[in-house]
Amino acid sequence: MMTWRRAWVVGLCLIVLSAQANLLLGLAAFAKGDYQAALAEWQPLAERGEAEAQFNLGVLYDDGLGVERDRAVAAEWYRRAADQKHVRAQFNLAVLYANGLGVEQSYAQAARWYRRAADQGLSEAQFNLAALYEHGRGVIQNYTEAAYWLRRAAGQGHPAAQNNLGVLYANGQGVSRNSAIAYAWYSVAAMDGNSKAQFNRDQLVRALNPEQLAEGRRLADEYAKRYRPPPP
């Protein structure tokens, strides 16, 4: 019994290593633009239940790389990977539902999958889920929830989320109105090239008194140290 168990573990390790090798071979082929070779490496792994390979097949079908574009097939591969908690598959599946690509358009399903990816910390999913709450699409409109998810994305250095969070603070939607905090979030987003944030900050400055502006600048310096992504 002990000998069999050891052999099984060694065999499992070899299978895992082989799967990893095939994934890497597929990635190398993909990087070279040889999408059919990538497909040949990933297809067997995906059919055996390898989430990363399933996600990669979804990308090929989603973009029509090495295969005829088929968003319905892409959605199915994304769904298989998403059910295994593959965060990018969850996000991409949500995008398909939000736009009705390969699946029946459903903001409710989009919200469901964005939330799963958002719960895993994906800032893009947090940002998109916040947008659904802001506009009441697939969920009941709730600015408090929108602010919560924007804050999580903004804290990871997501410039668009930082700008939108600034808008909520400027308007007092889902948060207490605070022009200095709005200025700070606009400023941090503008530092990373977000043109909307730069415009919003410049407009807001006209309405700030000297004390609010000083506080906004102080917070902007603090937020820049805490929430700007590190340089590459």
Distance between the termini: 52 Å
Mean pLDDT: 90
The fourth-level CATH homologous superfamily of the largest domain is Tetratricopeptide repeat domain
% residues in beta strands: under 5%
Quick rundown:
Helices cover 75% and strands 0% of the residues.
Show the helix and strand layout.
Elements lengths: L1 H30 L3 H13 L3 H13 L7 H12 L4 H13 L7 H13 L3 H13 L7 H12 L4 H13 L7 H13 L3 H11 L4 H18 L5
How would you describe this protein?
The protein is mainly alpha-helical. The protein has 12 helices and no strands. The longest helix is centred in the first third of the chain and has 30 residues, at 2-31. The radius of gyration is 22 Å and the shape is elongated.
Q: Which key terms come to mind for this protein?
A:
232 residues; mainly alpha; Serine Threonine Protein Phosphatase 5, Tetratricopeptide repeat; 2 domains; elongated; disordered N terminus
